[in-house]
Design a protein that fits this description.
Layout (H helix, E strand, L loop, with lengths): L3 H14 L18 E16 L2 E19 L2 E14 L4 E3 L2 E13 L5 E18 L2 E19 L10 E19 L5 E5 L3 E10 L4 E10 L1 E11 L1
Antiparallel strand pairs: 1-2, 1-9, 1-12, 2-3, 3-4, 3-5, 4-6, 5-6, 6-7, 7-8, 8-9, 8-10, 10-11, 11-12
Length: 233
């Protein structure tokens, strides 16, 4: 499966590159009205959780395909799907990779002198049934859900040419996560995110034709790194 994944991704990218692509002139870091995007997105997230009254550090990794559609020049709808895993560090529990799925919305609105403001919201969910602990595999069902939201402001294009486009943004993020853990033959317990607010800093780069690259870091009790590489058509 690991060998076939790059081949499949390459085939998808080849099909997209063969199509006629364009970037909406008024779209600020978004697809533009009527345009679609496909991105490969990688995330690493570390959260402070509370489980049975005790503090627990949870680490989440995800490798997803992000499909998006420009409902307007200022609004994108998107869906995410791909593998992910979760690790509870204090409990020494590391899950096997399992599917992750989610939906979301991102909006940006330009204002004076090329700057912009915006917000994003995404809802994610998944389920894990196997964890590794101390070299053995244990059966623990983890049904989880996650909500991530952010409000941000961004710079004008720093390259000052019609193309490409380079912008930075910063803002406040809000996130909640809940893991319902049920060991085989045992009672359930719930891990919840201990603190919900943080700050974020991101960068968006595009050639305003086909290609885009985004990266974002967040800090607080929930720390995250996100890298996204994609195409618009």
């Amino acid at each position: 499966m690991k060998r076939t994944r790059p081949v499949l991704i390459g085939a998808v990218m080849g099909l997209i590159l063969s199509a006629q692509m364009a970037w909406a002139a008024d779209a600020t870091t978004l697809n533009g009205k009527g345009h679609m995007g496909i991105d490969l997105q990688s995330e690493l997230i570390s959260r402070k959780m509370k489980l049975n009254g005790q503090h627990e550090r949870e680490r989440v990794t995800r490798e997803t395909i992000r499909l998006s559609y420009g409902l307007a020049d200022t609004l994108d709808l998107f869906a995410l799907i791909g593998p992910g895993n979760v690790t509870f560090e204090e409990a020494d529990l590391g899950s096997h990779n399992r599917p992750v799925a989610g939906v979301g919305v991102r909006s940006t609105v330009p204002f004076a002198d090329g700057y912009y403001t915006g917000f994003s919201l995404q809802l994610l969910a998944g389920q894990v049934s196997k964890f590794d602990q101390g070299g053995t595999t244990v059966s623990i069902q983890d049904k989880w859900n996650e909500t991530d939201a952010a409000v941000f402001v961004g710079t004008k294009d720093l390259i000052q040419d019609p193309e490409p486009d380079l912008r930075f943004y910063t803002g406040v993020k809000f996130s909640t996560r809940e893991d319902k853990l049920t060991p085989q033959g045992g009672p359930s317990s719930t891990a919840k995110e201990d603190s919900k607010l943080g700050v974020m800093l991101g960068m968006s780069f595009s050639d305003r034709k086909v290609f885009r690259f985004d990266t974002e870091i967040g800090s607080g009790d929930s720390n995250n790194i996100m890298v996204r590489l994609g195409l618009i058509f």
